[in-house]
Each structure stands twice: as structure tokens, then as C-alpha cells.
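Second attempt. The first submission of Phage antitermination protein Q had a stray character pasted in from the spreadsheet, which I only caught after the job came back as garbage. Lesson logged: always re-copy from the clean sequence file. Corrected sequence (143 aa) follows.
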Amino acid sequence: MTRILTITDRLENWGRWARSWSRRAEGDCLTAVICERLRKATNGILPGADGPLVNETDALQVDRAWRLQQDRHKSLLRWLYVRNASPDFICRRLHIPIRPVDFFDIELGRAVEALQNTLDKNQQGNRIRSSKQFDSVMKHDET
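This time the job returned cleanly.
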């Protein structure tokens, strides 16, 4: 049975993928290892446990859609899901009013909605391409 992922699940998966990818690219220094263990501990993952698995295919789809977003949306999503920054920090960094909290929620909602729309368009485009390829194969077989 296939589990249907919410956009939040997909973004959290993308964040795990991006964090593991950046660590592989930089190499593991002692400070990075300690910081990663502390980050996992704050998320409730015990030492030695691998934590949630990363769906690399889905993370690549999200990353492809993320790259097409406005800079402000990209920054907000990167700070929240990849760098695990607090909403207060993100607000200061991106010049979003901290109070009321609704401003952050509205900006996040816009960023997530734009990403979801891009993912939907990409998914629809993939279905169209697949059906065209199928049609061309069927026509080729008939001849």
C-alpha cells in the first residue's frame, strides 16, 4: 500500500536529503559530526539510530521544483527545512515582521503553495510525456 505524502512530509524529506547531501560534499569533520548528532538529539533521534529514511526520488522532485521558486520563497523553505532555523530567526533574516506571528505563517503558506503548484505542474507534464511516449510506441508497433 502506498502512503500518500503531504507537502510537509515531502519538504521534511527534502530537508533531510539536502542536509545529508551537503555533509557528503563537505566531508565529515569532527565538529560537523558533533553538530549533526546534537541536531538529531533535539529531534528525538537516539545516537546510533539512522532516523527516518530519505526518499531520494521524491527529494529530487521537490528540489527541482524548489529551484524554480522566487528567491524569497526559496530562502524561507531552505532556512526552515534544510537549516532548521527558528521562525524568529527566519523573520529577522528575510525582513518578515515577527509580530503578529500570522505574517510568518502567511509567507510560509505562500511559499508552500507555490512549490505545490510547481510540483503539480511537473507531475502533470510527466503524465503527458508518458502518454505521448506510449502512443508513439503503439503507433510504431502497428506499422
